[in-house]
Amino acid sequence: MNVSTNHSVKCMFALAGLHDVIDPEVGLNVADMGLIYQLNFDEEARQVNCLMTLSTRFCPMGESIVDGVTNNLKINFPDSDVLVELTFDPPWRYEMISEEGRNFLNR
Amino acid sequence: MIAGNNDTRTTTHKVVLPFYIYAALSFLAAAILLFTSSQVTGHYFQPHTLAITHAMTLGWGTMIILGTSHQLLPVLIEGKLYSNTLAYLSFAFAAVGIPLLVYAFYTFNMRWPAQYGAMLINAAIVCYLINVSASIAKCKHENVQSVFVFTAAIWLFITTAIGALLVYNFTYNILPRDSLHYLSLHAHAGIAGWFLLLVTGVGSRLIPMFLISKYDNKKLLWRIYALINLGLIAFVLLFVYSAKPVFYLFSALFIAAGLSLFVFYCYKAHQQRIRKRVDGQMKISLLSVLMMIAPLICLLLIVLLLLLSSVNGSLILAYGFSIFFGWLTAIILGMTFKTLPFIVWNKVYHAKAGLGKTPSPGDLFSKKIFNGMAISYVVGFGCFLIGILSADDIAIKTGAILLFCCAFLYNLNVFKILFHKQNSK
């Protein structure tokens, strides 16, 4: 997983939690899908900033996936505000799926 | 560049679900008509055959495709649907117009029920065409699939406009010849222009997406688009200029070439898929791609027989049946259970996403019922087709019973999904 961050320990903790947020069509979690691009933690402002993408713009499940990421980060960082933003630059590609994700899909 | 989170908002389920419900009930009604009708063999221009055909093409095929395309157009064009109101109007006009038209054919009352029915259906299609055109015009991302959908909508309008002219021609003689003469023009604009173009266009996006396939070949899709449209335009010109039957082979060959390339496209998408396991819904959808070959063989046989002598009516009937109850029904049976569970899942579990385990969309319907539906469909379709070709009443009745079972099981699963209540594991 290639997620840019300013706090590697908190990032690992957040990603572990995001393994529970599943892309319902693929059946794979958003972290292994490679949908999470950036996780930054502003300790002074008590804010978690997540930059993520979707496999398709206007994906019928998109709103649920973004809400799932927001809800999950709120549970894991209850003292912080959570801000999830979407980007399609760069667009998601199949190569972004992690090795664990590929193994899961190859079963 | 950061996109607004509005880019996650797709067409609301309130727009889409009525189309699914209407289509499911129409399929059941058409299967009942097929079972109870005594006129399913012989010439295709008979009241019951026309009623069943229109219940299938409009109530089942067109309604579910209209619903699905309101949901999927934003994915294809990467932009929002222009208007929900137009989508509601499209549903309302079609929902009233279709039963009027089917009733008119069944009783062969070509006066007010057929005329009002035809006008309402045309109003529905105009709303759809405006919605599709405005949605595509507003979006910045042009792609081949949106061109497929737009062109299919134009062909649909041509089909229903010709249909309305044919209905009025029964009473007012507005066309130079009787309505039966123009039936093949009306039917082929609908079959190849609307259904084939739309299914290939949307399928070219959905099949790789659901298979999680890396395969993408825009150049091939443009060729498919050009071949199907060339075939259709050739057909229209040949019809208008009353060409000899031999020339229709060119039209059939263009469309056959387009279809062959689409089968190749689906094969490559399947070959280059990342997810190894292919679920039942995708299997039946892929089967439908192969089932396109059956009507094509019938069509080539019809043209060849026309060159030699005259065509047996049962071959024409088999051609139509293999399109509406074959290819079209198979792809809808498969794709319904790839799209509807997600729409309902989104509605029911949207607020719970990421807060704990929820059922997957695939858990919203019964796999046993789905398998029962698939088996009764494949066997029923085969029996009925053999029955038509061999004029065997037992095979026809067995096929009709099995297709009714398929429609019943389909409805059972659709309503199981629609009435799903929140259920955390």
Automatic annotation (TrEMBL), chain A:
Gene3D superfamilies: Fe-S cluster assembly (FSCA). It holds the Pfam family FeS_assembly_P. InterPro entries: Fe-S_Maturation_MIP18, FSCA_dom_sf, MIP18-like. Residues 16-79 form the MIP18 family-like domain. This is Metal-sulfur cluster assembly factor. It comes from Panacibacter ginsenosidivorans.
Automatic annotation (TrEMBL), chain B:
Keywords: Membrane, Transmembrane, Transmembrane helix. Signal peptide: none annotated. The chain crosses the membrane at residues 19-38, 50-73, 85-108, 114-134, 146-171, 191-212, 224-241, 247-267, 287-310, 316-337, 369-388, 394-419. InterPro entries: Cyt_c_oxase-like_su1_sf. It comes from the Bacteria. This is Cytochrome C oxidase subunit I. It comes from Panacibacter ginsenosidivorans.
